[in-house]
Design a protein that fits this description.
It is built from 1 helix and 9 strands, in the order αβββββββββ. By secondary structure, the chain is mainly beta. It has a domain of 118 residues: Sandwich (Immunoglobulin-like).
């Protein structure tokens, strides 16, 4: 009633799966990217180098416990990805950062950038970064990637402490 299948035929499905690149056991880590849409190009282009980092400037409003804060902001050349890299934070703390409409020298960044000026004060209309430090840690980093470039009116990134006080600011590179 049952026919014996030659062992070589059992290897054909395995070869087909391998040829398609899907072993089902791929455990390689994948980068977490928000808002990124698939490329329409079949040819991958080499990654562009980020712009020169913008140093965070500690603000006079920073409480005494935040005076060791430093870091940088990196913006991709196409203005779709922004990274904050901070050191000297309080241990076991949460910080918020936002993209702002003015430079650090002009109103300490001014209001939050709204992609749609008449829209909501929440993501995805505003660009928010949550930065957390674990117990004993004083460093944190966060990256936000969008499908559309930041508008020209995106002028700075401002870090706020848990109380909402603006504690550090970095000007974003001007669009080319």
């Amino acid at each position: 009633m049952f026919r014996r299948v030659p062992p070589l035929l059992l290897l054909i499905p395995l070869a087909l799966v391998s040829a398609c690149g899907g072993s089902g056991t791929d455990t390689a880590p994948r980068a977490a990217v928000t808002g990124l849409s698939p490329s329409s190009s079949a040819t991958a282009s080499p990654p562009e180098e980020p712009s020169a980092p913008s140093a965070l400037r500690l603000l006079d409003s920073a409480p005494a416990g935040e005076r060791a804060l430093s870091g940088q902001v990196l913006l991709s050349p196409d203005r779709t990805s922004i990274t904050l890299d901070l050191v000297g934070l309080q241990s076991a703390a949460t910080y918020m950062a936002h993209v702002h409409e003015q430079t650090c020298a002009d109103g300490v960044g001014g209001p939050h950038l709204k992609l749609d000026p008449a829209g909501s004060s929440k993501p995805p209309n505003e660009i928010h970064f949550m930065l957390h430090t674990a117990a004993g840690e004083t460093k944190a980093a966060a990256t936000e990637t969008r499908t559309q470039p930041l508008p020209d009116r995106a002028r700075s990134a401002v870090v706020h402490d848990a109380a909402g006080t603006k504690i550090a600011c970095a000007d974003l590179p001007s669009p080319s």
